Amino acid sequence: MTELDIADVAQRAGVPASTLRFYEEKGLITASGRRGLRRQYDPAVLDRLALIALGRTAGFSLDEIARMLAPDGQPALDREMLAAKAEELDRTIRELGVLRDSLRHAAACPAPSHAECPTFRRLLEAAASGAVAVPRRRTGLGPRTTGHAG
Fold this sequence. Notes:
The protein is mainly α.
């Protein structure tokens, strides 16, 4: 396969060209050259972008992902970091499960008011004590209008 134009890579990877330029600035991908003013990429960049997307979906920062990419484009995955992220995801899943169940209860609770519902009161107490984690808002995969993510 021949070199891919930045627009082709953006379309195939499902990210804007600005994200590709941002990833290049962060050292996550490298253009193989230029044709006129347009960056050109080796087709293998699509696999690297898929790995970046997978890492972002799992909750890794761009800096963490950068540490898991070898200069030759191959994954250099840190097994300890992967295991730690899996544990973090397990905790988040448990916390979100409790939160989901509590919300479902509150939505169907027969108590005259939520203030009178023991289950809802326990949820409020847990939230006040920090036992219920506030989900982090996901940052984008690349640049935003107010700055860069990652």
